[in-house]
Amino acid sequence: MQQFISLSYKYIFVMQFHAQTQFSLSDILKITPFDDVLTWSGVSAATPTEEMNGAGNLMDFLDEPFPDVGTYEDFHTIDWLREKSRDTDRHRKITSKSKESMWELIKSLLDAWSGWVVMLLIGLLSGTLAGVIDLAVDWMTDLKEGVCLSAFWYSHEQCCWTSNETTFDDRDKCPQWQKWAELMTGHAEGAGAYVLNYFLYVLWALLFSFLAVSLVRVFAPYACGSGIPEIKTILSGFIIRGYLGKWTLLIKTVTLVLAVSSGLSLGKEGPLVHVACCCGNLFCSLFSKYSKNEGKRREVLSAAAAAGVSVAFGAPIGGVLFSLEEVSYYFPLKTLWRSFFAALVAAFTLRSINPFGNSRLVLFYVEYHTPWYMAELVPFILLGVFGGLWGTLFIRANIAWCRRRKTTQLGKYPVLEVIAVTGITAVLAYPNPYTRRSTSELISELFNDCGALESSQLCDYINNPNMSRPVDDIPDRPAGPGVYNALWQLALALIFKIVITIFTFGMKIPSGLFIPSMAVGAIAGRIVGIAVEQMAYHHHDWIIFKNWCRPGADCVTPGLYAMVGAAACLGGVTRMTVSLVVIMFELTGGLEYIVPLMAAAVTSKWVADAFGKEGIYESHIQLNGYPYLDVRDEFTHRTLATDVMRPRRNDPPLAVLTQDSTTVEDVETLIKDTDYNGFPVVVSRESERLIGFVQRRDLTLAIKNARQKQDGVVSSSVVYFTEDAPQLLASNPQPLKLRRILNLSPFTVTDHTPMETVVDIFRKLGLRQCLVTRSGRLLGIITKKDVLRHMAQMMNQDPESIMFN
């Protein structure tokens, strides 16, 4: 935490946190003061004058700031309180300077508007990249089956749009679009043409996946996977250098197109959140307000995540709620406004590009002409149960496979794994028309209602020749042979998608989970919807149908069941609720069907939570050992701070520094022999009365800088953290004052503080560590890693799985 903080500000800051986190006053007062430094919830009584003035005539070289002090090393957690206080000091200085001149006033206004400028840039870039990715995926997916002769860069749909010879009945066929067999041999039908098209389909898929995994492995290893587990961890305060870098942005954008086009069972929606956060991190580097403060940077990244979901689904409001509910750790009100603005700009940019060619922002626009009925809540809830069971099955199976990949030889051959899974997927997917096409096209067809103009097998019903009704009000009809054939193909596609998605998610290529999960639910929902529809037609005299389904009426909409099933399966895997429902009705335009979506989402979460509280992203965070302290976890065990703090009973004593009797050589030896992130500073080793806390990185940089710039600093120089220099002999070398890097107000608890309170403090204030004292005497230290390991131990999990601080 920055040093130049007044007591009055800190008191206000703690009380603000008290208001936001609903701490009771008694909880705050459990943190006992130590005698020589007045401490209330980690608040020091040191005055600004004491902290800012140097000691005597000795030079305090830290009067001039030097690079990297106050920064963090890779794979470490930030100190939220320190970042918050640094930003408050920065803002206070800007406000005071703005009264001095017109130029300073203009600079303060620019600083105030910089946040909105960053949001605008994030929205523009993420919307543009999403549009380009959508267009490229459409073209490369169709490239596996054929090519447009008039313009090779056109997809199948775009090629036939421009043709004047396309008829309505054969709207998917036009002379300008030719499949590879027809182009090479001149024959479009027959066994030879089928085999050649089959072979080239598999070959293109293998080529795309090989390029994707090779680019990721060589240029940007962090570009693999969904990215959401790491984004959640980064937003909680963890540092992963390079994860949001420029190379990661470039390679993830390119390889995402290749991976989705290869036909693997994955989506682009999760990786688009990663892409948007890379855009946010890129623009943060342009403004010192965000580049030099990790806490402020994470506010921007929260808004960028909202923009990513906005362009992934065409759901700006759902994107804001997704960021709030699913990924963000600290989400103040101004971040909500800025997230909304970034999502708005991103959606507007995507709509301007119009990648779907339907003049709509939504991906799966539906238009149903029949309301839902109360009796249908039963199959909707059953779909919710299926979604919860599928979510549990997928999480456990996928985590088991990913753990096997990490702990066996399989993990050493990521390219071979991707090639093998792609080959199996392509070979098994091509014979089935519902798995051959892109997953987005499949979901769109499953969501659609069967109108009079539909040519899909799913709409092959037996029509009554005497029927004379409006086009949009077609009654329920008996299923024809095309529907039954489609049901068998959908059942096989369901089994295929369930199995192959387990092995696909987590490979070393960009892979999202939203679309595959929705596909599983949409297939199951469409099958259930057709079953209910046929039951209502053939048994309309049953009591459950008699009140609302008369003969000749349009009672059941199978596409609605597909939409509800998609929401249920996605909710079972991710455990989203509110944001899921909003995303689904924004995605489809089906606002009228929000109640069935809510029922399915809540049911799937209840069923999945009965088998385990963690969603897929939290499970992958645990698998990777990231120090993520979930705000939704409950700690109900009756342990105390003394049970968790270090050192333990048989451990060596705590590594500390004294305020005025440690030499530079002693400090350098301590840094070399230990790997701790910081050291408590005490009055003396005998009294162990706490003075403050100093970060390891700041200490290293300060000594290095002092040796370069301050004359007379040698290994035997005394390091002192007091305001006045210690009394030394004239023959002694010049001492080194390091008071400026000392945190005089470290957060402290007593040894009898319940761990339930300690966990709440770490979770809600974002601490890296807190010190354990008794009557001002230092007893030990509790780090975030200690808290996570203790929680894992209490839940009978492996505490050594937490690998980072």
TrEMBL record:
Major place of residence: membrane
Membrane topology term: Multi-pass membrane protein
Membership in a protein family: Belongs to the chloride channel (TC 2.A.49) family.
Organism name: Amphiprion ocellaris
InterPro entries: CBS_dom (IPR000644), CBS_dom_sf (IPR046342), Cl-channel_core (IPR014743), Cl_channel-4 (IPR002246), ClC (IPR001807)
A Gene Ontology molecular function term of the record: ATP binding
Presence of the UniProt keyword Transport in the record: yes
Record lineage: Eukaryota, Metazoa, Chordata, Craniata, Vertebrata
Name recorded for this polypeptide: Chloride channel protein
Subcellular location: Endosome membrane; Membrane
Gene3D superfamilies for this protein: 3.90.1280.20, Clc chloride channel
Presence of keyword Transmembrane: yes
UniProt keyword list: Antiport, ATP-binding, CBS domain, Chloride, Endosome, Ion transport, Membrane, Nucleotide-binding, Repeat, Transmembrane, Transmembrane helix, Transport
GO annotation, cellular component aspect: early endosome; endosome membrane; Golgi apparatus; plasma membrane; synaptic vesicle
SMART domains with a match to the protein in the record: CBS (SM00116)
Boundaries of every CBS domain copy: 645-709, 742-800
Segments traversing the membrane: 109-133, 198-223, 244-264, 300-324, 377-401, 413-430, 486-506, 513-532, 560-585
